[in-house]
Amino acid sequence: MSSITQIEGNVLTPQGWVSGALHFSDLITGMTGTPLEFDPTDDDHTGDYILPGFIDLHVHGGGGQDVMNAGDAVHTIAHMHAQHGTTSMLATTMTAPLPDLELALAAIGRACLARQSGCARILGTHLEGPYINPGKLGAQPNFAVAATLEQVDWLRSFAPLKLITIAPEMSGHLALVKTLSDNGMRVQIGHTLGTYEDGVAALENGAAGFTHLFNAMTAMHHREPGMVGAALAHAEYAELIPDLLHVHPGAIKAAIRAIPHLYCVTDSTAASGMPDGEYMLGRQVVHKCMGGVRLADGTLAGSTLTMDQALRNLVSLGLSLEEASLRTSTYPADYLGITERGRLKTGCFADILVFDRQLKLKAVYVEGEQIDLNNA
Questions:
Q1: Domains plus CATH for the chain?
Q2: Can you give the pTM of this predicted structure?
Q3: Which of the residues 267, 308, 334, 351 is marked catalytic?
Q4: Is 223 known to sit in a ligand binding site?
Q5: 251 sits in which H/E element
Q6: Any known ligand binding at 139?
């Protein structure tokens, strides 16, 4: 894009709030205004809130499509989530037979090459399985296998693997955690029956975070702290689903106090943005009703959450708008080592959100392109 766009309001910068204007094309070219010494969310003040675009590192689906559908499904998903403020994302796979993973990853790999108009940027893949504990599948189909470096390298040939979820207690996995981490891959602990000691060992061997903290892992008990205890005691980063269904608000607050860079994901499914009914999550049939998504036996199976609602939920729990933005934009960018997204700063991509005073999304820009919100 060559033309410069200007929007005005209360701009959240890495240095704090500025009352002024943001100038951008595909990149942010500058900003003008006055630093605010007050919280612009106070009732006595006016003006829209201008925030960095959301970065969602755990997205299975949306708009009726699932990442495992391959083909053009990922574009439908990226379009639906862009309408709710997600400007970049990781397409997340399910535990599945190798041929299914190859097809899904090939489609993701193609989508990573160029962003389709109206869509969020696909940064790569979060491989959630098949390297998980078959005793802690959650809503994952039972195709769990032990990981090998050769198979991971093969899957990486189809699409960038930015995150990989592994149960570290499985035979051979701890050594693989170290190898993958030494090679620059972000390894997350998840879908695990591991102990506190297993979690600490994985972190010492390079594991960087935890997949949907509290869910599909051993719980914390005061004499058996489990994987949750390892996260709360030692983690710098962990992802959490703040739909207020997967995790109790009190547990969310405890995690925020314990984990400095806890960040939020949707773990969204094909049911996101769709009416109640039956949808597919990989090879599983899931049911959307009463704001949640479940298997036939009642097991939670991902969510219908969108990132704009995640932001509102965090604010409803007492977080400032600034901190809620950090946990939905900046921290996930930092976790992946991305410096040109997740913040409103000259030279960064123009991934920009505009919210009104009631935190209703008014405008979304992905790399400077304004997204049509009419059908959101």
A1: 5-51+345-370 (2.30.40.10), 53-336 (3.20.20.140)
A2: 0.97
A3: 267
A4: yes
A5: helix 249-258
A6: yes
